[in-house]
Description:
Layout: E1 2-11, E2 14-24, E3 29-33, H1 40-48, E4 53-60, E5 63-64, H2 70-76, E6 78-81, H3 93-103, H4 109-118, H5 135-147, E7 153-157, H6 165-182, E8 185-189, H7 193-199, E9 202-207, E10 210-215, H8 217-221, H9 224-227
Parallel strand pairs: 3-8, 3-9, 6-7, 7-8
Antiparallel strand pairs: 1-2, 1-4, 4-5, 9-10
Helix pairs in contact: 3-5
Amino acid sequence: xxxxxxxxxxxxxxxxxxxxxxxxxxxxxxxxxxxxxxxxxxxxxxxxxxxxxxxxxxxxxxxxxxxxxxxxxxxxxxxxxxxxxxxxxxxxxxxxxxxxxxxxxxxxxxxxxxxxxxxxxxxxxxxxxxxxxxxxxxxxxxxxxxxxxxxxxxxxxxxxxxxxxxxxxxxxxxxxxxxxxxxxxxxxxxxxxxxxxxxxxxxxxxxxxxxxxxxxxxxxxxxxxxxxx
Length: 229
């Protein structure tokens, strides 16, 4: 459903990603695991189009999207929640959601009602500036803002970073529910062991811009590699 082959990317002359290959099937949750500085965030930025790839191909449902800009990839069905949440702090919660929906041509009350049904905590804050929310509430908004676009694959970058345990549990439950209902596919960058274990079908270990292993959660957490983390 989503794949990239021989993917190279970086910052200017600094090469970070070195020939990455991965296929993510529909309704599969795959986690990218590794220490800081290994290229995980660079990978997601390259997949959504914020960084150009210097070599390789990215395909979604068989269509090559390697050269498409970020807004085109979003319209094609790629959702993205960046590390640090990336909400528009001066806009209200409602306007954050409306902006995301309108950007991919999904404006309308039905989409808004649907995402608020999934994230009822946000209903009380619709008129509040997003920057006034707690970190956990902003993360819920960032997730809701991506999901209102009805992506076929969701790229999640460190969604539990700095978030209280109760909201981490809420995010876990919500992703599993949406997956079961809509066959959502997720590519996750995360270092929270419990979160990774609860969601993942496969875990790909990344080291110095390269993938070194792909395992089931049972295999990964029984391995010497997992003990390093």
